[in-house]
Amino acid sequence: MAHIKRIGVLTGGGDAPGLNAVIRAVVKSACNLGVEVLGIEDSFDGLIEPGRTRVLGPKDVTGILRIGGTILGTTNRGNPFAYPLSTREGKVDYSARVVENFHKFGLDALVVIGGDGTLSIAHRLSKEGIPIVGVPKTIDNDIVGTVSCFGFDTAVSFATDAIDRLHTTAEAHHRVMLVEVMGRYAGWIALYAGVAGGADVILIPEIPFDLDLVAARLRERDKFGARFSIVVVAEGAVPVGGKVSIVAEGNAATAERLGGLSATCARQLEALTGKEARYVVLGHLQRGGTPTSHDRTLATRLGGKAVDCLLRGEFDVMVASQPPDIVTVPLDAVVGKQKRVPPDSDLIRTARAMGITFGDGIAAGC
Ligand code: F6P
């Protein structure tokens, strides 16, 4: 047993439904074992500046299980190793201050809830001597070592509902309706929502697409008597030999922002098929709202396991879902990697068997 009396908890990166459920699980399970919890605001920023922490007891987390966002706030711009402050010397390295404040705040260990960027910072801080357990978070579901991340199921459910609704106009007006979903460089959201929503075409980053082949499929559907089509476009999908579509360049402190692909595809598909094509970008709606029961349960299990690890003295690890268990994986085996959709996976093969095309010319049914 490690001597743990006071732990900190923080959330980093983009928000995802279920963050509050993890915070609640950490606070409740720690407090029930007599461990005090300090909530750290706005990711690692709360360890750089004083006055951005607060003690959290069970009363402070009552009622937050079903609420989206994070009561602690978050940022995806606050890497303490390369803080985005413009000085003549470039970025400022605040990591020593983070370590100093960690001790000044009387902390024995940290629970860090975040995606790959945040977990990479956690791993580096572990090497600086801070006992840390990471909790994987992302709607994109692209973290290696865990079968699923909380937030993913909520995002997929929302996108599926959006596709269901778009079917109405698509059918009534005999249109091609494109729906652009998030997911960065992985097609998990597009694939799961596309299959669940009965899409006709799914474009994902892992399978480069050819719009001529997509157009051919849409014409085929017309001939077959289905005069509408639903195309799900992952924001990170790429045409054969082309590049990812971005709306803002990245830099050392922020990642590039993806977007714009569905608009381009709608224009081109209209020209290629002569059919009216419209697009909808779901954007941050996928990250908002109340987490599904699946995400609440997963988040609660991960939060509880994180506290269990800290108390047992297992550090520099990420808690992970490997059904039916919640296990631990060394952070070293996780960070800097990406879990992408295997193009020959069962779900892709099933989707193809359903007649869904991925724009790569591999035969579809009707
Ligand atoms: O990683 C989660 C995610 O929502 C991605 O799907 C998306 O590309 C990105 O974050 C958007 O980030 P931001 O909210 O910073 O624009």
Give the topology.
Layout: E1 6-11, H1 19-32, E2 36-40, H2 45-48, E3 53-56, E4 83-87, E5 90-92, H3 95-104, E6 109-114, H4 116-127, E7 132-136, H5 152-173, E8 176-181, H6 188-197, E9 201-203, H7 211-224, E10 229-234, E11 246-248, E12 257-258, H8 261-273, E13 277-281, H9 293-312, E14 317-322, E15 325-330, H10 346-353
Parallel strand pairs: 1-2, 1-6, 6-7, 7-14, 8-10, 8-13, 9-10
Antiparallel strand pairs: 2-3, 4-5, 11-12, 14-15
Helix pairs in contact: 1-9, 5-6, 7-8
The protein binds 6-O-phosphono-beta-D-fructofuranose (F6P).
Our Rg estimate from Cα atoms comes to: 22 Å
Structural class: alpha/beta
The total count of helices amounts to 10
Strand order of the largest sheet: 3-2-1-6-7-14-15
Low-confidence stretches: none
Helix-strand topology string? EHEHEEEHEHEHEHEHEEEHEHEEH
How can the largest sheet be summarized?
A: 7 strands, mixed
- Distinct ligands, ions and cofactors found in the model: 6-O-phosphono-beta-D-fructofuranose
Q: Based on Cα principal axes, name the global outline.
A: elongated
Distance between the termini: 60 Å
Proportion of strand residues: 15-25%
**Strand runs, count:** 15
> On the 0-100 scale, what is the average pLDDT?
95
How helical, in percent, are the residues?
25-40%
What does this structure look like?
There is one protein chain. This protein has 366 residues and is of the alpha/beta class. The protein contains 10 helices and 15 strands. It has helices at 19-32, 45-48, 95-104, 116-127, 152-173, 188-197, 211-224, 261-273, 293-312, 346-353; strands at 6-11, 36-40, 53-56, 83-87, 90-92, 109-114, 132-136, 176-181, 201-203, 229-234, 246-248, 257-258, 277-281, 317-322, 325-330. Helix 7 packs across helix 8. The radius of gyration is 22 Å and the shape is elongated. The model has no long low-confidence stretch (mean pLDDT 95).
